[in-house]
Specification:
By secondary structure, the chain is an alpha+beta fold. The protein has six helices and eleven strands. The strands form two sheets. Strands 1, 2, 3, 4, 6, 7, 8, 9 and 10 form a nine-stranded antiparallel sheet that branches. The radius of gyration is 16 Å and the shape is globular. Bound molecules: fe (ii) ion. Belongs to the acireductone dioxygenase (ARD) family. InterPro entries: ARD, ARD_euk, RmlC-like_jellyroll, RmlC_Cupin_sf.
Length: about 180
């Protein structure tokens, strides 16, 4: 089950650690949504193919593309280097949608005050990271995640590293942040 918390300022130790503040500052999924626009759905990994929940979500949101990825030391050549690449702060022109089937990892997103929020995902967690938000990903110390990726239309995985403040998707994201995600939804 997903958990989210504000990260510490420690940039020296391993990115795969939890990086809690002292004392820890957890936030609820409602707070996560209102502060970042990140959406969360809980799916059943054993029945998702037939229970209709994922199908309804795909239909509602227009996801027409999907594939499956595995990140692990065995599956990724130059694993440690890849980890650092994933961890570069970036944004996309489209939503980043991930449904975790097995394993675990962390998605870090910036809130409106530029603070890092760490989102711990594991099997059954589906998160939708809005277009235009600065974020990054890392495996955790278990070094294994298997996830489905979704996309509306032809997939574009291109990351734009920070700074990308002049991009239209960034401006649109900031407008939603100012207006409030609850009303913009
Ligand atoms: Fe990304």
């Amino acid at each position: 089950m997903v958990k989210a918390w504000y990260m510490d300022e420690d940039t020296m130790s391993d990115q795969r650690l939890e990086h809690h503040r002292s004392p820890p500052e957890f936030i609820s999924l409602e707070e996560l949504y209102s502060r970042t626009g990140v959406e969360y759905f809980n799916l059943n990994v054993d029945t998702y193919a037939s229970d209709g929940v994922l199908d309804a979500l795909k239909k509602e949101r227009g996801y027409t593309y999907e594939d499956e990825i595995i990140c692990s030391k065995e599956c990724l050549p130059n694993y440690e280097e890849k980890l650092k690449t994933f961890y570069k702060e970036h944004l996309h022109t489209d939503e980043e949608i991930r449904f975790v089937l097995d394993g675990s990892g962390y998605f870090d997103v910036r809130d409106g005050s530029d603070q890092w929020i760490r989102i711990a995902v594991s099997a059954g967690d589906m998160i939708i990271i809005p277009a235009g938000i600065y974020h990054r990903f890392t495996l955790d110390t278990k070094n294994f995640i298997k996830a489905k990726r979704f996309f509306i239309g032809e997939p574009v995985w291109l990351p734009y590293n920070r700074p990308a403040d002049d991009m239209a998707c960034r401006q649109q994201y900031l407008n939603k942040l100012t207006q409030g995600f609850v009303t913009a939804r």
